[in-house]
Design a protein that fits this description.
single chain, alpha/beta, 9 helices, 29% strand
């Protein structure tokens, strides 16, 4: 089998000619974008470049006005993040989207709570949630307080760990992280980078939206630059440097 065929077979998700409009405003224009299984991609660009819009289309929050989406070679059409979750695709937003008053285990299982029957009545299986939450966190090498701890008592880095566990703990194939190192301590950033590498080893793909190029160059295989709703360029991280990527961000494709 040729290298081209191998690469085609390894594609986890592929977007073809994606366009998106908000009224008269064109947010994306004919975007072609793909992610290989287990690949880490850094997505960069200035404000209003189209990064978040593209990622919301991949995660099911938005639907494209034009173009097709393929997952593992099959065309898909989804209408919600929950639908995209069924294909193993999740997005972690900058605010983590956790419920502060609920505990760690409940946040991890939110929307997927295990139940048990007792005399015809259904009850939340808190024991199973606690045990499986611990397994998910330990498998990812994430350290947080006990699963019964309220999320509001956790640090920013610990809350992010809960968000990562929720996104990746259930047959995840791709996780999108929106500015994942914003407002984190240097120690928490190091832990996050280690977690991204662990996800990669588990063959889970990661897309990182970030303004911090140092995070991209520490973790990503490939960097994709967006400008004015289009792909301005892409480079293998090992073949480029921050100066070239900054030039693409500022000037766009040559």
């Amino acid at each position: 089998m040729s290298d081209a065929q191998n690469k085609a077979n390894n594609k986890l998700i592929e977007l073809k000619n994606i366009s998106k409009y908000f009224g008269a405003i064109r947010a994306l224009h004919q975007v072609n974008f793909s992610v290989d299984a287990g690949e880490v991609i850094g997505l960069v660009g200035d404000n209003a470049a189209g990064k978040s819009t593209l990622m919301k289309i991949i995660s099911g929050a938005y639907q494209p006005d034009e173009g097709e989406i393929y997952v593992e070679g099959k065309e898909v059409v989804w209408n919600s993040p929950k639908h995209a979750n069924k294909y193993g695709i999740s997005m972690i937003y900058q605010d983590f989207s956790l419920i502060p008053d609920l505990d760690v285990a409940t946040n991890i299982f939110l929307g997927r709570e295990p139940m048990f029957n007792f005399f015809g009545l259904k009850f939340l299986n808190k024991k199973k949630m606690k045990e499986e939450s611990l397994d998910i966190l330990q498998d990812l090498g994430l350290r947080v307080p006990p699963p019964t701890s309220p999320v509001k008592e956790l640090s920013g880095g610990q809350q992010q760990a809960v968000a990562i566990a929720r996104a990746t703990g259930f047959d995840c194939k791709l996780v999108i992280m929106d500015e994942p190192t914003a407002n984190l301590s240097p120690e928490a950033i190091d832990k996050l980078r280690a977690t991204i590498m662990k996800l990669k080893r588990k063959h889970i793909a990661v897309i990182i939206i970030s303004h911090r190029l140092e995070d991209i160059f520490e973790t990503a295989d490939r960097v994709v630059v967006m400008k004015h709703g289009e792909i301005a360029g892409e480079r293998q991280v090992e073949e480029t440097g921050e100066d070239e990527i900054l030039e693409l961000i500022i000037k766009g494709a040559k």
